[in-house]
Amino acid sequence: MTVAAGIGYALLALGPSLSLFISVIAKKPFLILTVLASTLLWLISLIVLSGVWRAFLPLKSTTWWPYAILIITSVGFQEGLRVLLWKAYKRLEDILDAFADRVSKPRLFLTDKMQIALAGGLGHGVAHAVFFCLSLLTPAFGPATFFVDRCAQIPFFLVSAQIALAFVTIHTFSMVIAFNGYAQGNKVDQYFVPAIHLVAGMVTLVNFASGGCVIGIPILYLVAVLTLIHCGKMVFRRLTENRSRQGNFQ
Amino acid sequence: MESSILESIGSEMIGVMSPVSICMLLVVLLVYTLSSSSSSSDAAIRTAANLVYQETSTDSPTEKLEGALLNALVFVIFITLITFLLVVLYYYNFTNFLKNYMRFSTFFVLGTMGGSIFLSIIQHFSIPVDSITCFLLLFNFTVVGVLSVFSEGMPIVLRQGYMVCLGVIVATWFTKLPEWTTWVLLVALAIYDLVAVLAPGGPLKLLVELASSRDEELPALVYEARPTVSQNERSGRSGLRLLVGGVSETRSVELQALSRGSADGSENHGNLEYTAADVENVEHERNSEVERLPLVGHLFREGFLSSDGSSCEYSTVVDNRENEIVVEEMSPLVDMMELGDEREQGGRRDGRENDIIVDKGIKLGLGDFVFYSVLVGRAAMYDLMTVYACYLAIISGLGCTLILLVVCGRALPALPNFYHSGNPILLLNSVVNGAFCCWDSNKPVNVLIFSEKLHCQRNTDDFVVDGFVNIVERIST
């Protein structure tokens, strides 16, 4: 993989999050801090998980179910962390509101809350992409590329970049969905997020089959698009509700 | 629509974090490009940091460890002596000597260390430059750097840029130290820092207390996070700032209008100052009030400190007699807090060398830049993922330090217990953690463990391919 190809793969995986970062996050310092904190949290979850699973790895068996267990535990742990993150965010919101009252500025708008959730999700997603895609790219600069037997059609790095992009999208927007779900007590949204995460993780198991990546990646992108659509619909609904409520006040 | 508070909170933290990040990024890039290409030019350098013991790769680990410990001990003693010397010099008011010494050392660092780094860059990219041009460029670069360090007339951006530059150069230089010495040295310096800043009679503590009692700038190389004004403008400016900063927001609008009115008259400068002094008095009364506010206020007010970036929505232009001064609408209580902090907090800062809050925003000692960047730069020699983890750990540690800076400086009855117990541990953890994740990858065995961790995690929810681990390891070796 040449340097140009490496940059291309990196942009493929992280380009959307980069533009999101520049257009939304970078203007507001607090959101940058949120991204950093959430990245760190994801990293800690990674270290804890790998510390626990260290005893059983590497899995020598050729069957898929140990990997499934691995995925289920990991997703479970990370979803648990999401609940913790929500609780922490809830306290933070109270603090921010109290502070806004004190300096007589308006409280957090609905869009602000959503942006905080977006920043949190983006942190998770970026951490994911860096560890699962960039970490493969950086040691592999040189005049060749690499194919895997099980997926002979696409270069390995391209596959990893594509998968990373899908996961970044899912992580980023499922955080928005989850926070809104928690805020409104909407059970569907609350269960939608872990389900999506688990399904996306499980879909990667398809790659085990020979030539599986041809099927697995489209399914993964289907899941990502589903997340996007759900998130978009929900945000649109809440914004219109909010606007009509504000309209009633006036 | 009024802007929400999200836009202003935390800008000060970002103001400190972004130069640190830039510095680390540059060091990593430098180390990554230079170390990968020219392993032959890794000639061992001889500095104060490895006077006693010169590490060779054939030594046994115990020998290396002992040698590294000795090196670190000598270096720390050396630094302690120098710092005490500085304190003594400063105590007897040799400020000019100190400043000139700092200028000289800046010249030296930029000229020789920077020069050698430039040379290796030129060699690595085979840039066609003749020696005379190169010398001229280097000389110009150096002279401007020296001028920018303590003189008032330079644009703040230039000074900040040179501070980052100095940090990058020194850090890159320090990454050439032998491996074990670097690690032991980093740990030793962290401990030294804690002692020197926190212990009663610690040299840095003495220095900072002395500086704040004299109400002077510290004659040291520190990074200023916020743009300041040059000396001749300062009186008018600070008066205005006090004026604006000293009142609550609703009233400040009127006062701004008032100050604009009075500034229009050419004779009214003294008057303005008088008003400012008045407000200052009020402000000191208010200080006590501020202290009683709960932690959270402080915490986030600290976030407001910079207030020259996004939070100056209400900035108003005052046509003064001398200059056009832009008065920033600062978050109202910040200035007071800074003033109060100067005395109370000066000596009790936590964490690293020169994190000082004075009346011009947060300052970060250049030593911290170097300290962080050496850590990251050393990590860059192994694996970029380690760099990433280190970066996050360091930045979070820095964030905690900044929060602690505000939290620990004063007695806060409303402080939740959690912060009492949690924060110092968090700070220590992040420092230790930062060292540890790199320390882990120090030895090849641990590199494997670390990358194994990553691999196993990779398997957890991503692309799972047979023989994948082997392949990646083959690529990376």
TL;DR?
The complex is a heterodimer of chains A (about 250) and B (about 475). With about 250 residues, chain A is mainly α.
How would you describe the overall organization of this protein?
The complex is a heterodimer of chains A (250) and B (477). With 250 residues, chain A is an all-alpha fold. Chain A is built from seven helices and no strands. In chain A, helix 3 packs across helix 6, helix 5 runs antiparallel to helix 6 and helix 5 packs parallel to helix 7. The radius of gyration of chain A is 20 Å and the shape is globular. In chain A, 45% of the residues are buried. Chain B has 17 helices and five strands. Classes of the chains: A mainly alpha (250), B mainly alpha (477). Chains A and B meet through helix 2, helix 3, helix 4 and helix 5 of A and helix 1, helix 11, helix 14, helix 16 and helix 17 of B. Chain B: It is found in: Endoplasmic reticulum membrane; Golgi apparatus membrane. Chain B: It is an enzyme of class 3 (hydrolase). Chain B: It is a multi-pass membrane protein.
- Biggest sheet overview of chain B: 3 strands, antiparallel
Helix content of chain B: 55-70%
The rounded Rg of chain A comes to 20 Å
Major sheet characteristics of chain A: none
Features:
heterodimer; A: 250 residues; mainly alpha; globular; B: 477 residues; 3-stranded antiparallel beta sheet; 17 helices; disordered C terminus
Detail the topology: elements first, then pairings.
The complex is a heterodimer of chains A (250) and B (477).
Chain A: H1 3-25, H2 29-53, H3 65-102, H4 110-137, H5 156-184, H6 187-203, H7 213-249
Helix pairs in contact in A: 1-4, 1-5, 2-3, 2-4, 3-6, 4-5, 5-6, 5-7, 6-7
Chain B: H1 11-37, H2 61-91, H3 95-125, H4 131-150, H5 156-174, H6 179-198, H7 203-214, E1 222-224, H8 231-245, H9 249-264, H10 269-292, H11 295-303, E2 316-319, E3 324-327, H12 334-344, E4 356-358, E5 361-365, H13 366-380, H14 384-407, H15 417-440, H16 444-461, H17 468-476
Antiparallel strand pairs in B: 1-5, 2-3, 4-5
